[in-house]
Prior knowledge:
Chain A is built from 6 helices and no strands. By secondary structure, chain A is mainly alpha-helical. In chain A, helix 1 packs antiparallel against helix 2 (65-80) and helix 1 packs antiparallel against helix 5. By secondary structure, chain B is an alpha+beta fold. In chain B, strands 1-2-3-4-9-8-5-7-6 form a 9-stranded antiparallel sheet. In chain B, a hairpin with a 5-residue loop joins strand 3 and strand 4. The longest helix of chain B is centred in the first third of the chain and has 54 residues, at 12-65. Chain B is flat, with a radius of gyration of 25 Å. The interface between A and B is medium-sized, with 26 and 19 residues.
Amino acid sequence: xxxxxxxxxxxxxxxxxxxxxxxxLIGRRNSVDSVFATxxxxxxxxxxxxxxxxxxxxxxxxxxKDLLEKLTALRVKALESQSHDDKVEIDNQIAKPLxxxxxxxxxxxxxxxxxNMIHLQGTLNEIEEQIxxxxxxxxxxxxxxxxxVDMFPTNLLAGMMRFTRRRFFEMAAAEREPVQITFxxxxx
Amino acid sequence: MTPIENSEQYSDQSFxxxxxxxxxxxxxxLEERRRQIVGRVTTAGFAAALFSVVAAVAGVAYTNTLGAGxxxxxxxxxxxxxxxxxxxxxxxxxxxxxxxxFKERVIGNVVRFVDPNLSYHQExxxxxxxxxGSQIFPTRPDRYRGEDLVRGKIGQTAVEFSEVHSExxxxxxxxxxxxxxxxxxxxxxxFFIADFNKHFAGQTVVLPDVAERMFGRLGQKLQSWNFARxxxxxxxxxxxxxxxxxxxxxxxxxxxxILSTSLMxxxxxxxxxxxxxxxLSFVASKLYIAISYQKNLFExxxxxxxxxxxxxxxxxxxxxxAVEIVADLNLNNRIWTKQ
Lengths: 188, 339
């Protein structure tokens, strides 16, 4: 009788552990998705501002016309992209032309001094910081999730239930920095 | 101006000139007064000691003649204590005016030298409600004192800081059943508040990290179970920063928005520079830093000559450390939407 109860207890404890491990994996995966949603929101805010930026600089930047067109095209692509990987890819592509436009504002003193431009740059810088923060938070949650998928003993369950590693949100090679507006002061 | 340039400004030539021209005359007058006070205090000390001894002897002799030997000792002790109390009262009144004058004339001047936009208020301090609002030390203090308030605007950043000493009390009964009160320090040092250069709504707290240093990953696990703290543990990327600090926040993304890679590096730099334990918090677009000190800052030492330049340099160093936070953490960098 007691042997039977012991076996039942062991099985129960074993099941409990399995449940805890499964929930831990689910929790961490959900965390990854939830933080990506935050990244997405910030990315969208940036994409929404691009038409404003293009409209403001168009009159001044005759030479940079191709760049502006490229930016507009990328923006359309960004709004259409669905999967996480696509979104990451577009973000990497859009970073450089955007930064180039903002840097070339330095060459047009009238534009540079324009209050609307200054305000827009401030807002864009802030969004870049937010994107950077959201991205870092995303990578942290991916790390937690990947750890659970890879490390013993949750990796056993992960293998069985088909939990797979997620990709980190990698920075583009052109390292992102908030663009400095005034008086040669160093960016953050 | 880089932080290093800033501190060079306060040493060597410009301070020496200021010292010679503006401070020295004040110091000389105060030194005279100090010597007088030392004289009086010493006299008072001897008088009090003499009184105690005489009273003790008289007391013991009196009770002896009454035929009760033991209580005599208590009378003796009582006389000594009374003498001590009298001395303490005399000391307080003799030095009070001196300390006030010193602070006004010397510390006030040094503050203005460091930055003319700053004002000094010796009686003022950071309010207890603000101190509690920072969430750095959640324990409600039983005693809260502060002094030496400095406030003003450095560049575009509004700052305010003062000395703060907060304590809590425990009451214990010893074996004889007597109630004994013990006071424990929660925080003692400079409490500094500045306008932060980014807008944010929530709360993020940066505390010195003991567990991670000692226990590594296990320490991190323990920290994530810290229910005394509101908010989640935030694990950041800068290894040196993570080694020294543990971060709790109510929003993972906002914590990283505030603690950018460069700010983390700057905080580590400041911690190294300061050599004291520091706690930080970010609440509602303001930055709070608690710098722990063991000593009472900006006090004139009665038994040390005021004409010793090192004394002034010490005040200058303590003051500069706080003021330079703005440069060290690049708080005047206003390239986002907050101006």
